[in-house]
Design goal:
The chain has helices at about 5-10, 20-35, 45-55, 60-70, 105-115, 145-155, 175-185, 210-225; strands at about 80-90, 90-100, 120, 130-140, 160-165, 165-175, 195-200, 225-230. It is an alpha+beta fold. Strand 1 and strand 2 form a beta hairpin. Helix 2 packs antiparallel against helix 3. The longest helix has 19 residues, at about 20-35. The two termini are about 15 Å apart. The relative contact order is 0.17. Pfam families: TACO1_YebC_N, Transcrip_reg.
């Protein structure tokens, strides 16, 4: 198995375990999708993907419809996607994806977390190059031959495909998202969930004591309401 498989396995163990945080994240995704492409899933591919993810997270349909309606209101603030980069203790690179309606607040909060935990908030581009920006799709495994599907989907950008207990998972470069989404839909294949990851090109092994130092910073960052995803180079 490749890097995407190992990365996914590690993240599944711990990320977004809190249901409330997951729903908040999806709610922001809905607002950004609606503001960008309108409230109709039929004509808004990004919104279609978010609704699939909401279903996968067992988010009630009423919640989804309410979020779409709210996002359509002109008075509803839009969220800006902002990327933060920095270093945790022991040379661990951290990449933070946020969605914020108040950039000054978010910058101040993120900086305070790094300062309190002996980390360093970096400048734009300081660690982003250490991660591969990827997209992923999950479809049902029933009736699918993984090897055959891999050969067929290579032309659309898929670089890694594997089956696990949740179905068949495909990974590809970030820019291949639209082409893969369209092809899966054209084939009538149900997309259970989709999303984006930043996979570290190289990871660093730490001692248990050092891991605790890094985890302290990661926990503070992940608890912030503006934070959508956190990626790092610490081996898990």
């Amino acid at each position: 198995m490749g890097r995407a498989f190992e990365f996914r396995k590690a993240r599944k163990m711990k990320r977004w375990s809190a249901m409330a945080k997951t729903f908040t994240k999806i709610g922001k995704d809905i607002v950004m999708a609606v503001k960008e492409g309108g409230p109709s899933p039929e004509t808004n591919a990004r919104l279609r993907a978010v609704i699939q993810n909401a279903k996968a997270a067992n988010m009630p349909k009423d919640n989804v419809e309410r979020a779409i309606k709210k996002a359509s209101d002109k008075d509803t603030a839009n969220y800006k996607e902002v990327l933060f980069e920095g270093y945790a203790p022991h040379g661990i690179a951290i990449l933070i994806e946020t969605a914020t309606d108040n950039n000054n607040r978010t910058v101040a909060n993120i900086r305070s977390y790094f300062n309190k935990c002996n980390g360093t908030l970096g400048t734009q581009g300081s660690v982003e190059f250490m991660f591969d920006h990827t997209c992923n799709f999950r479809i049902p495994a029933e009736g699918q031959d993984v090897e055959e599907l891999e050969l067929e989907m290579i032309d659309f950008g898929v670089e890694e495909i594997f089956a696990d207990e949740d179905g068949i998972v495909m990974y590809a470069p970030f820019e291949s998202f639209g082409a893969i989404q369209k092809e899966l839909e054209n084939r009538g294949l149900e997309i259970l969930s989709s999303g984006f990851d930043r996979i570290p090109q190289v990871t660093k092994e730490l001692t248990a004591e050092q891991i605790a130092d890094v985890e302290k910073l990661l926990e503070k960052i992940e608890e912030d309401d503006d934070v959508m995803n956190v990626f790092h180079t610490m081996a898990e």
